[in-house]
Amino acid sequence: PTLDDTDKEPPKSLYLAYAHTGLFAARMGPGPHLRGVVLPGGILGEEFDYFHEQIAHEEMGRLCCPGFVDGLGTGLVIGLPPVMVFGNNELKAKVVSECLRGEKSICLAISEPFAGSDVADIKCTAVKSACGKFYIVNGVKKWITQGQNADYFTTAVRTGGVGVGGISLLLIERSEGVETKKIKTSYSGGAGTTYIIFEDVKVPVTNLLGKENAGFKSIMYNFNHERWFIVCGINANSRRITEESFKWASQRTVFGKPLIEQPVIRQKLARMLSRVESVQNWLDNITYQMTKMSYKEQSTALAGPIALLKQYSTRCCLEVSDDACQIFGGRAITRSGMGQFVERIQRAIKFGAILGGSEEIMADLAVRQAMKVFPKTAKL
Known about the structure:
A four-stranded mixed beta sheet has the order 3-6-7-10. The protein has 13 helices and twelve strands. 48% of the residues lie in helices and 16% in strands. The termini are far apart. It is of the alpha+beta class and 380 residues long. It is globular.
């Protein structure tokens, strides 16, 4: 069976071995955590940039085992940056090093049964204790990637009133009152997708990430990197199954000649290649801009473009996988054999289209961001 088909999360031994290569650190992007670190390919941490990180995400995507790959660090990629950016020095020193060494795992706990893309409507509460030293957290989270065995939960909680102004980010360590239940999804159980229950969980106030009631902005900043990372993996999926389709069309014989000799197949391949390369060009353009901007500049200037690119990349992948399915025929709906990559992506494509912000929300966000800078006096 393939890694995805085992339905099991990556074993701890693999997790530690993966961390030892420096790939966890590489997938977190450039920053102080890379000082003195030698990364794959002999790259020094001080020379590392977002293009190097992009390659790391793309190579993971090329495996076309999306569920298992999500279980091998996606929780870290989206859950650790808020600690690195908004956590206090003591928290950073402890948690970041533990996670990058693979000794502990972390996840991002934002979505709830009642609030997915509508982050402002979360219900999970954090109320300060009488002594003022703790937050008491109560609530639930759902569809949390890599949450089943996580040691830390970067969690959106309500510390104030309704709406965006009452949301904070807390780092919750697994402890008494934290319960996780695995959710069966359409792709592999290797992702450790989880339903989380927090019941009277005591969290030190020092675990607050950023300022109280200012967590919504921190979540939005973090979403930029998460969405960019999703695009890297999604287009790598698209490229891999396009490559597989080209190989199959060249070797498969139908009606006495190679499948690729059929004009309708060449048209499908042309569409697939056009979509993959258009996303790649746009992604490389965004990545280049990231190398020239600070974290804060990226968070404001690139929010709209990254959101629109995510929406475009998942639509393209859906269409690419559909064409690949038609090229492979019955093999594309079989979990083993030469069409297995296409079959797995067929089951997983909607994850990218929903997680990190649904396509509809992404498109709307991009247009709203453009409206903010559109000249009020512009007319035909």
